[in-house]
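Deliverable D4.2, example record:
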Amino acid sequence: MGAVNTTYTFTATDTITSTKMNNIIDETTITSDAIIGTTLEVASGKLKVRAAGITSNELASGAVTYTNVQPISSMTALGNVTGTTNLISEVSILDEDDMVTDSATALATQQSIKAYTDTKVSASFVRGTAVATTSGTSVDFTGIPSTVKRITVILDRVSTNGSNNLYIQLGDTDGIETTGYDSDVSTRGGDTAVTTGFILTRSSASSSICNGIVTICNCTGNTWISSGNVVESSTVNSSTGSKSLSATLDRIRLDGGGNTFDAGQVNIMYE
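Output generated by the structure prediction step:
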């Protein structure tokens, strides 16, 4: 047996034809005698690469290149932040709750992202300290930051000893402004327009209980718009208003309209 084997042979008198030659090729198989070394093997008369048969002996020098993976610095990752096609390099991972570095190329940890977000969300809504409306004719909230764009006034069982209506008035470093308001309040019984403040109630009665929320938003510059709903006893007072201050708002007042407060409390929230 040689390197190849075929089941088709010629006799002394056979004529060579293309058909016979094709049959010889089709029926020829390779034998194991054709194998030198351990790189190849014969399977069903055909050559195949032996499992694990290719070693460095079969590879030319420099035919395969590779780079060893080296240890990298702590708090870094491999990447490319150059903005162009480039080799990978170490990219910093920063664990900063305040994001103070403000890097355009560093990564942030999950913990620092959560801490930064939680801080910003909690800081965006500031609640003041509730003030009892049990004496005096007005309650002022001062020191409101110049960056504030929305203020919410919260009335909890507020009442006075008279029948004058409640107002909200705005102010700046020059004090509370008591003119220039375009304000209106409406109930099922009618409506009332005033210019001395954001009016909250209409046709009040002595010691009537007021609960509600009034939202005052910055429109542009020093112009503020109010919208509120205050329930006085069983009457719903819906109010709106507009006021342009002479300077940046830094204070707000709940005014009893000249009457003295005798019950309840008021607070503000701002953002």
